[in-house]
Amino acid sequence: MSVATQTQVCDRPLFIGGSWRPGGGGEWLEVLNPADESVVSRHAVATATDLDEALAAAQTGFETWRQTTPLHRSEVLRGAAALIRQRLDPIARDLTREQGKPLAQARMEIEGCARHFEWAAEEGRRAYGRVIPANQPGLMWTVTRHPVGPVAAFTPWNFPASQAAGKIGSALAAGCSMILKGPEDAPGGCIALAQALADAGLPAGVLNLVFGRPAEISAHLIASPIIRKVSFTGSVPVGKLLAQQAAGHMKPCTMELGGHAPVMVFADMDPIEVAQTLVQGKFRNAGQVCISPTRFYVEAPIYDQVVEAFVAGAEKLVVGDGLDPRTEMGPLAHDRRLAAVEAAVIGAVEAGAQVRTGGERLGN
After folding, report:
1. How many CB atoms lie within 10 A of CB 324?
2. How many distinct structural domains can be found in the chain?
3. What is the pLDDT of residue 1?
4. Residue 117 — φ and ψ, nearest 5°?
5. Strands, E, within the chain: which ranges?
6. Which CATH number characterizes residue 172's domain?
């Protein structure tokens, strides 16, 4: 089943125990193209029973995968990377239709997924241990690395494919199985990764993919004794909540949370050149990036020049449908972000900021 390469409105099913399937409750939720709000796909909604079956599959898959040699794990990941590159164009188009980013950026993201898998494939072959000098004659102390167990991973909508690839590649290379809760706003990228891994020979149950209601899924998975590790990328408030849930069961967490990135521009910089770089950084993926600049500190001697060049660069950006090759910035991913950005602009103006360009919706 190659659901990730379809171009029409398509179903995004669950992937449990090596099989693509709808949710047990038969519920599907629509996924909208943020450029025109047309329905491009719909994703299945996992029930508690589905999650229990995913947990059982992850446990079974782990028992198989942990006994698989690092060399073979590497071969599977490399095989999946090759398939991702072969399917790059249709996967990227699906990503743009669901998330909104320009097609060129979507292509870069999918190419990055292949590189993630290749890097993990090589690192997994080098999970060396250590020999520690003993404190008594005749003793030898050694440290060996073992997979921690089934992982519950939660990935965001702003980079729906590459964030998933980083978590999947690392866990699988280490010998862990995984249940991935992909982003409901843009599920196609995770679907494509799971399909590529399945086609590359990943045993059933090693990777399971679910969608649904995030709070219900995270609470159910983290509380299960089968899950031994939690990995999350997203906002600080949600990260705190998941960390609290994991702490109640003494489970280790890896958190990549929202940033608050400053940019410092010194007077010995070329103001025109640096402004061009700042425009690229600020408006990439419509600013929906963890490390997107949130504030700029510019030394006084070149402040005015940098501001003028930045405004000019912003005004030249072509905003539109991500599938249009002329587009340099696509729409915000969903109406929640639209409302948040509008509120940020209003709040800044009320606090004394001056709007130099933009500040309101463009077209539709």
Report:
1. 14
2. 2
3. 32
4. -65, -40
5. 10-12, 14-16, 19-21, 28-32, 39-44, 130-132, 141-143, 151-154, 178-181, 207-210, 229-234, 253-257, 261-265, 293-298
6. 3.40.605.10
- Domain-embedded: residue 364: no
Could you please report the per-residue DSSP string of 221-262? Answer: HHHSTT--EEEEEE-HHHHHHHHHHHHTTT--EEEEE---EE
Which strand (E) or helix (H) includes residue 190?
Answer: helix 188-199
Instruction: List b or e across 216-240, with b for residues whose CB sees 16 or more CB atoms inside 10 angstroms.
Output: ebbebbbebebbbbbbbbbeeebbe
What mean pLDDT, rounded, does the chain reach?
A: 94
Q: Which domain holds residue 280?
A: 262-350
- Tell me the average pLDDT across 166-187: 98
Look at residue 137 and tell me if it is in a domain: no
Each residue's pLDDT tens digit, 288-311: 998 899 899 999 999 999 999 999
Q: Is residue 132 classed exposed, middle or buried when 0-12, 13-18 and 19+ CB atoms within 10 A define those classes?
A: exposed
Which residues belong to the active site? Answer: 256, 290
For 308-363, how does the pLDDT look when each residue is reduced to its tens digit (9 = 90+)? 999 999 999 999 999 999 999 999 998 888 889 999 999 999 999 999 999 888 87
